[in-house]
Amino acid sequence: MAFGLPIMPPTEEAVKEMLKGTDLPADHVVARIPPMMGKATVEKIAINGVMAGCLPTYMPVLIAAVQALVDPRMWIEAYTCSVASWAPMLMINGPIRTISMSAAGVPC
Question: What pLDDT shows up at residue 31?
């Protein structure tokens, strides 16, 4: 479900191109996502990035975002197992923040 937002088809070619944004192998498990402990592999992150319209240069940020999501201090289980409408927010800082990751072309 894309909630009315545009979604790019994750074609094999597009995913291969997205994977060029990292040196990690496609089958590398970046994290296990609670509550079912699903594997967030580099390839799955790339697939989601393609569907969101990301460029390969965004891969380091996408991978770091997944790692931050499962940090014990984040306590993601509270969000994924709650009946409330929680949503984590991601703030990007450092030199990578200057890449344009928004549809408007504005740096993060």
Answer: 97
The pLDDT of residue 80: 76
pLDDT tens digit sequence for 71-88: 999 888 877 777 777 777
Determine the Cα–Cα distance for residues 53 and 90; give it in Å rounded to an integer. Answer: 17
Tell me phi and psi for residue 32, to 5 degrees. Answer: -110, 125
How many other C-beta atoms lie within 10 A of the C-beta of residue 59?
21
Could you tell me which of 65, 53, 63 has the C-alpha nearest to residue 100? Answer: 53
- Kindly report the number of other CB atoms within 10 A of residue 29's CB atom: 11
Dihedrals phi, psi of 7, to nearest 5 degrees: -135, 135
Residue closest to 8 by CA, chosen among 53, 69, 46: 53
Look up residue 6 and give its DSSP letter.
-
